[in-house]
């Protein structure tokens, strides 16, 4: 072999042994490069073994990522290679790669095919040159696309294993659609003004995004709330996507919904503005992009209502920011809505903490069963559903097929002064004492709490929304007065409520929080 090498060296213009190795991880130095679109980033991972080079190219623009795996067979003559241009159906795709000097190679691609805009001929010539110190790779690229030509000068440097992250770049034309479908109606809870709503982010980009941060600003740019990393991930759901191991990772064409619930000091701001920051996972060096928008006017404060029931003691369940009511995004009549956004499932315990007696397998054993539900305000009965049989407690098989008209079971929707509806769901069949169109006064009896429709045990589901059924958007409300007498600390054991009672504390004009044990006026 040694003799052969000597022989080759006699005839070769450039000795084989002196040829450079391009192997390494390279990234574009945009400041030293020309002829490229704004925001363009390029990374190369090169593995070279003699005359064979594996080249993985990552191309990043605001609109998308392109990751291409190439093989350059240097000196092998013209070869057929797979064409890797999006949207191009290639009929011819040929590549010639060769050494042109000790430190230089030339790679020529010729592609003929069809694109959505018609026939296409693509010629790309790349001249690679490695600097003498091996620290810079310069690529001169000439591209001719069916008569239109472009020249770019790209300087790439060896990527450092780690480095300071690039500063966040504010991008007005970044392809993300931010929407707040229902601007918040402020309400009081825990002594503070609360803002509860959702921000939907849909990626219109070719390639993944990572939603890294969400800042909520008021009209003067003051920061009201800020979520990042795991804290943001915990607020996200991904409609239509089963696996949510990494909910902040948003593939092109998909969306994430951030469920916000935060308190502000003092009164609610007039407007809200949102700044969402996205990383580009395809690149280790790409700057994060910040998008500002989704400006909405905060609505008028929530309705003040009377109690939906009398006396006590009532447990407020499934009303927190992570509850299935709050996150119950359902499409009705072609629109995605959350009618149960502020629903509370109310259960009842006796003064000696019994939620039910006996085995809990009969509706009559439950303290809540048969309690009167009453009008929270003067209004007009908008919808009554009656005649749906009771469910067996603990059974996951409701007595009726659950659908849009039966989910609430025997129920009353009361139209309130502002046009919204108060819904009393899962009542007892035959217990409803009002008719559709009937005017009622605050405190009037409407029916009795039961266990009908989409319910697994007796309770009162109460919410306010913009429609009489599941077609509305859930609106917050506050009760003019209630007394907090305890806090739930776990699910009941053998019918006994689990929690701590406290000195009665009167609350005015607030929405009860999850797990509160509450006493209302009357009995
Ligand atoms: Zn419910």
The CATH homologous superfamily of the largest domain is called Glucose Permease (Domain IIA)
> For the terminal residues, how far apart are their CA atoms?
103 Å
Overall pLDDT metric: 93
Poorly predicted runs are: 1-15
Summarize the structure.
With 523 residues, the protein is mainly β. Helices cover 3% and strands 47% of the residues. Residues 1-15 have low confidence and may be disordered.
Structure description:
The protein has 523 residues and is an all-beta fold. Strands 23, 26, 28, 29, 30, 31, 33, 34, 36, 37 and 38 form an eleven-stranded antiparallel sheet that branches. The N terminus is likely disordered. It contains two helices and 38 strands. Helix content is 3%, strand content 47%. The structure holds zinc ion. Zinc ion binds next to loops. The site of zinc ion has 5 residues, from loops.
């Amino acid at each position: 072999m040694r003799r052969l090498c000597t022989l080759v060296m006699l005839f070769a213009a450039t000795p084989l042994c002196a040829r450079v190795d391009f192997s390494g991880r390279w990234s574009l130095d945009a400041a030293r490069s020309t002829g490229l679109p704004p925001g363009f980033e390029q990374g190369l991972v090169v593995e070279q073994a003699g005359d064979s080079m594996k080249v993985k190219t990552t191309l990043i623009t605001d609109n998308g990522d392109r990751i291409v795996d190439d093989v350059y067979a240097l000196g092998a003559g013209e070869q057929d290679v797979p064409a890797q241009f999006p949207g191009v159906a290639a009929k011819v795709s040929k590549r010639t790669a060769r050494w042109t000097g000790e430190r230089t190679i030339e790679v020529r691609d010729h592609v003929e095919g069809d694109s959505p805009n018609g026939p296409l001929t693509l010629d790309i010539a790349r001249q690679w040159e490695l600097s003498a110190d091996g620290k810079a790779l310069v690529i001169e690229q000439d591209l001719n696309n069916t008569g239109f030509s472009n020249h770019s000068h790209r300087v790439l440097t060896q990527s450092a294993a780690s480095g300071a992250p690039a500063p966040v770049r504010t991008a007005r034309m970044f392809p993300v659609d931010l929407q707040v479908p229902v601007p918040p109606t402020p309400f009081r809870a825990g002594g503070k003004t609360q803002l509860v709503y959702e921000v939907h982010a849909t990626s219109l980009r070719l390639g993944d995004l990572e939603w890294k941060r969400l800042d909520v600003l008021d009209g003067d740019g003051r920061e009201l709330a800020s979520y990042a990393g795991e804290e943001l991930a915990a607020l996200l759901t991904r409609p239509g996507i089963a696996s949510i191991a990494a909910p902040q990772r948003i593939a092109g064409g998909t969306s994430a919904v951030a469920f916000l619930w935060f308190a502000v000091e003092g009164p609610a701001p007039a407007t809200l503005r949102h700044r969402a920051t996205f990383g580009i996972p395809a690149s280790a060096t790409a700057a994060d992009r910040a998008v500002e928008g989704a400006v909405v006017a905060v609505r008028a404060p929530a309705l003040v209502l009377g109690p939906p029931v009398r006396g006590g003691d009532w447990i407020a369940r499934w009303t927190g920011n992570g509850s299935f009511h709050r996150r119950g995004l359902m499409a009705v009549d072609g629109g995605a809505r959350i009618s149960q956004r502020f629903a509370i499932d109310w259960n009842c315990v006796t003064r000696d903490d019994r939620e039910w007696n006996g085995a809990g397998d009969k509706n009559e054993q439950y303290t809540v069963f048969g309690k009167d539900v009453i009008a929270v305000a003067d209004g007009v009965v908008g919808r009554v559903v009656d005649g749906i049989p009771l469910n067996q407690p603990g059974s996951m098989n409701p007595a009726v097929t659950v659908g849009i008209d039966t989910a609430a079971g025997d129920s009353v929707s009361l139209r309130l002064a502002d046009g919204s509806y108060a819904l009393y769901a899962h009542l007892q069949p035959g217990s409803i004492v009002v008719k559709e169109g009937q005017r009622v006064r605050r405190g009037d009896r409407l029916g009795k709490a039961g266990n009908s429709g989409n319910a697994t045990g007796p309770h009162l589901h109460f919410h306010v929304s913009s429609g009489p059924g599941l077609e509305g958007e859930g609106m917050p409300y506050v009760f003019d007065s209630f007394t907090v007498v305890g806090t739930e600390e776990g699910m009941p054991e053998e019918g006994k409520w689990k929690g701590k009672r406290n000195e009665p504390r009167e609350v005015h004009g607030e929405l009860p929080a999850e797990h509160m044990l509450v006493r209302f006026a009357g009995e």
